[in-house]
Records
---
Amino acid sequence: MARLVNQKTNKFYGNYMSMNYSLSLSVQSTLNYEEFVKKIITKAINNNYVFLKQNMPLSADQATEFFLQTFYNEEIGIWCKIFDTYVDFLIIQSKKYQYSIMFCSSSHGWCKDFLHTKLFIDHARYLRLLMNLADDLIIENIWIFSDETVSSHFKSQLQATLTMGTIEDLAHDVDRIVRNLSENAYQVMDPSIAFPEDIAQLCNFIAHSIKNFNEAKLTLQYQNCLFDVLISSSTIQIIPHTRLRIKYINGKEQIDLIWYIQILLNITTHFGIIELRMS
Amino acid sequence: MSIWYLTSSNLHADFNEKNLKTILKRSEDLGFHYYNFTQHKILTTEEAFKSIIIPDEDGLRVVDVKYRDVSVGLIVIKTNDHITISIDCTLDWTKDFSGVSKQYSVKRDNSRFMSLLLDICSDFCIAKFQLTSDYSQPLEQPTKWFIAQINMGINGPKQFGHDVGFIFSNAWYSSIKLILYESEIQTENFMEMLKYFEEMALIDQQINCKAHCNNYHFTLHIKPGYIKILPQEPYKIKTTAENSCIDLVFYLEILLRLCDNFSIEELQAIG
């Protein structure tokens, strides 16, 4: 049984099996609750999600009806089979024209062997599915939180708190982050850094900055868009820069937040996500 | 307990440049990046092709791949002038199977790697597909069957009955709609059917039944730790420009869906 320990405080959070987690994605929509639920449910079922009531699979209409009942009865969620795992699936109206789609579950399901913590829920895999359901909607905010979420220090922008190691592990952790930059073909814009030719130079720069200034800042380019990445000993932030990534939703120009979140997930791939927030 | 796992697919495809490049292109379309980890360099499809056409000093034709959050080796073997393609199942993708029983807990998600390999091979007919490990032994003599050894029901009839319930629930929930029929069952009510099979599991420690999916029939055999699908004629056939053969992927996907709640330790499929 895996033990989940915060590497910095050495606080023991219990064994792996006791964990619960939630992923929440808030979106804007001009649809009313019933229309919005039907749109999301239909898309989910088309993606092979199976909504269940007393072990019976529901059609899109039945699942919508069931959602409306649970909503008015103030119950939480519908049990849903996604491919080979299960989640509680929630759709909540937070205010007019704003809805939250949520996956909640106890531990059973997708996990991953990360550095330091070893076994940990693979939040990124769940989040990618959630974003897929909302890829034609305007995203307001995203939040991943779980039993082990302890950070309340949130600097806005797009930030992930990670299961990184102690300061002794810093060089190794930075090396894994930098290799991810290289493997994903992200370009470093600082002309004094020979990247990706000299991996060690960039590693030294980041480790030195974190040790002396608590964080390192890089400007990266990918697919002709620029963004800053702020790396500390436990968090990574993405700050969209000039040359923003844009997409059109309902004919309106919007910043493509999903594109930036995917970059954050790519960079943080070797670490478990304790918390991820964006607003 | 096995340490390494390898999933392999023997293709009805000649070992030639055109077919190898089709595989590389399909992999790239799925999101693969070919990568040289020594030089920290992303490879083009042409460079990746050179890596697999010329064996390395150990005689292996392999190119390193970055796919989403894992790094795997894409291994190509020339088998009787045909292509066999393999990927190693890394420790990174794991799954918590404790929904079935806590004793199984967290295991490597081999099923996810097998699904990935099936996607890579989707342009070709597959002759044989298998998951092997360092403890692998041939499961049975070659014939047309699909067989998986899984972590389930080894702790007595009660556990087996419980696990069989999961398998038939998976059939019921699956987008591949399974309709089970058995001479002693005169109902299509899922709960009644489930109860019947759970009772059968308790008494006999094995389940034999017929089933069909999209009007293709097969026999299903379940014993503790073991699921086998025997396709019945007429088989589902896959036809490509060069070949026509039993659609191994169709039957394999049924097998994988039935095993959703269990970690797969060995798998062999012969079409």
---
Amino acid sequence: MVAVPGFGAALRRGTLEFCVLAMLRGGERYGVELARGLGRVDGMATSEGTLYPLLSRLRRDELVTTTWRESSSGPPRRYYALSAAGAAELDAFTAEWRRYRDSVDRILEASP
Amino acid sequence: MTPLPDLVTFYLRTLSRELRGVPADQRRELLDAIREHIATAVAELPGGAGRTEAGVRGVLDRLGDPAIIAAQARAEAGLPAPAGQPDSPGEPGGTGGRSGAGTRGGSPGIALAVLGVGGTLVPGIGLLVGAVFVARARGWTRRQKAIGLLWPMSVAVGVAVVVAVTLRFWSPEPFLLVGLIGPLLSVAALAGMLPPRVDDREAVAWSLALGLAAVAVGSAFFALARPAGWGLALFLAVGLVLQVAVRRRPRSAVSR
């Protein structure tokens, strides 16, 4: 995996947790699925392992909940789901992100 | 070809070592999650690729350098990055299974060999040299080193005193016993505390229980069979075999 240099890494650090929360909006997912999903998105790919400390913190902050589930192919998996608090946090971030993104765009595009 | 479980064990051990300083419950949760990720990702590789070395290496490479995962864990736990570590998970770094990860300090295996062999063959000086090697080796916390070196010596002295008093042989044997039991028990205790047995209390409890069991069996034989060599050889074998057996025991998954 290629690490994102400079400002890319900073942007990723600030937004990754909300991207993970957003990926859980459609229903619960297990770690490998989340890692794979992020790996397919430009700018989000990095060492898959760094996802797990983040998931652990989101669980401690009660933004996600976890359950163990048997699987037909392989060992039991831990599934992550969005909690009500997580959904609220995600909505707040989404609104703030759009506002901020539009502001940055306006400044970038207004320059001659 | 490296056996596949060894590749994974090595990766997890490296990660566990890099996670020193992270609170024990977070460390355990992360190691469990990474272990589960490896098992799942390997099982999901198409066409039996999970049984090949390249397949498993691919999974570990995508997981990334244990040092970078540990740096992220430290950041999430609000801990400062230790000196000489990548302080940002976004920094470019090597990929998975980097064998040089956590190379600060000497090899724990060599330290144990020096302590065990040197300590028994050259009583006194050998023990000191072994202790210095252990003190400089990686793989143990400072507390584990102190425990692994100090309590076996106390036990050895205790056993020697008991043997000397109860059996009333005021010969060199009790002192020989201290010289032999101390270093060997230290080796057994320290081996039991190496990663992936990462929980300090658990590791120390196991080392204590097994070390004491080994001493009991060893000294029983020593008392019964006067050729002391047999008893001590058995003591060494039992202690080391038990420690290795326990370290190999797979940890059960922790669910919450």
